[in-house]
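Quick question, first post here. What does this chain look like in 3D?
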Amino acid sequence: MAKVGVPKEILDNEYRVALTLAGTSALVADGSTVYIEKNAGVGSGITDEEYVAAGAKILPDAAAVFAEADLILKVKEPQASEVSLLRKGQLLFTYLHLAAHPKLANDLAKTGATCIAYETVQNDNGYLPLLTPMSEIAGRLATQIGANYLERPMGGRGVLLGGVPGVEPGEVVIIGGGIVGTNAAKIALGLGARVTIFDRSLERLRYLDDIFNGQLRTVFSVGHYLEQVLPNADLVIGAVLIPGKTAPRIITRNMVKKMKPGSVIVDVSVDQGGCIETIHSTTHSAPTYVEEGVLHYAVANIPGAVPWTSTRALTNATMPYAQKLAKFGYQAVLDDPSLHRGVNIHQGEIVHAGVAEACGKVPVTA
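> Answer (accepted):
Ran it through. Tokens below.
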């Protein structure tokens, strides 16, 4: 059985942890040894003492965790100091979003570790089981965050999304009708906003029209219609995803220029490069900037703001796969097609087609 390591997340204001107490107990029951970095779970409400009671061993720093473990469980992509700790043959299981980080992809390949990305683990029907829970949270937060930044003291237009009797509500435009877009729409409608959602799938638009009982406006495609709608938008939410690939730039700078001063953009797809030409990644400690008079929010780890919820939602989904990797090592990848699709880096090569394309390389078969 494997030695499983869980380092503390070191990305700016990232408080999630890759393993809960239930997950620790399950891995230990399977015969694995679990190593947790000191205070790794504190931000998610889990103490070292609780981990020990669940059967884990606490190590003083990340270097010790990486040195001991065969399988590393994380939440976010490794930072530079963590990449240097990876070694040949080690398994890394985490969110990677390498299409937006070609240098990191190349650096990870040089380590010789096998890197499996939560966001590209994909079932035969196209479902993304490990991306879904964070997409649900990010979508709901996107509307909540946008509503907050529309307040005048936060730099916005001073619009209350739900309006009040006698005053019209705010306009929310959502680009993409997947999990993020659906959850963003759910919160926006709940607040009383007027919502328009764009998608390139008529089947998806029919589904959204049905589940929301016609309360939102659905629009097929993006180009001409998007240019007509954006000037009236108070809040725009980017929710575009092509699994493993760089997000396409749907909204141009010229479109942003035509938006109202003080309107707000929240681009959830920024972890895959963003779907808006004026977007660049920000952090929880410096989350916004103004471009063309429009306030942009582009934090790449939005769910990290609610770690108690997001840690538990994430690990509910990841644990079955983590247990397989702990029991069988790389053989688990060969036996499980969904997990196999999650492999981004193997034996020094970029093996995921979308990531290889973003890095200008030809993928090698894992």
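The chain has 14 helices and 15 strands.
The longest strand covers residues 194-199.
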